[in-house]
Hints:
The structure is a single chain. By secondary structure, the chain is mainly beta. Helices cover about 5% and strands about 45% of the residues. The protein folds into two domains: about 1-45, no CATH class; about 65-210, Chondroitinase Ac, Chain A, domain 3, CATH 2.60.220.
Amino acid sequence: MVASGEGIGGMASVIDRGDGSDLTRVISLLKKKGVLPAENKSSAAKEIYQSDTGEITLFAAESQFTLVTPRAEGALLKEGGRASLQALRLVGTTCAASIAVLVLDAKAIPESKRLLLVYATDAVNSGLETSPDRVTLVHPGELPILVETGTVTAEIKNASAPSMKCYALGMDGRRREAVSLEAADGLIRVKVDTASLTKGPALFFELGVD
């Protein structure tokens, strides 16, 4: 695609040429001028687009999006998707989901003593009707909201791993039930099957030292 100077009020229009050549030149120019650092992963040929800080990366060809910061890491994954970030490694998910780990005590993830694991799967109104591609809304449906269940396996680097416990949380933030986890060599490994939780599916899981 290429930006054109023609437009109204200084606005630019974009023409898609389909071969990525213009984006390649733009990325190269941004790196040359120091807007993007030399190690930035952006590549039109590989359909990878990364922010100037390196914290946000879109892998368009893989339909994957990742976020990596000292106190929050996560990814948008397709069914069966995997991601290896810095403190977080997502071994797998049985359904498309947004998966992240966030600190609740203002420390970096490896040093935090209280973490929040988010496993946000698809959620729709009861009776929702759309076109097969879910672009056209036929009927909005109604409450209650239906949440897709799934299984996620995540590994988190953390110095307090041996002392950590995991709890599924309700939407009000209260602990609903304990979830088993494994800890060894500074690594927390948690596998959650939201369909098997005794008090219903959960989106949020607290990892902390009691």
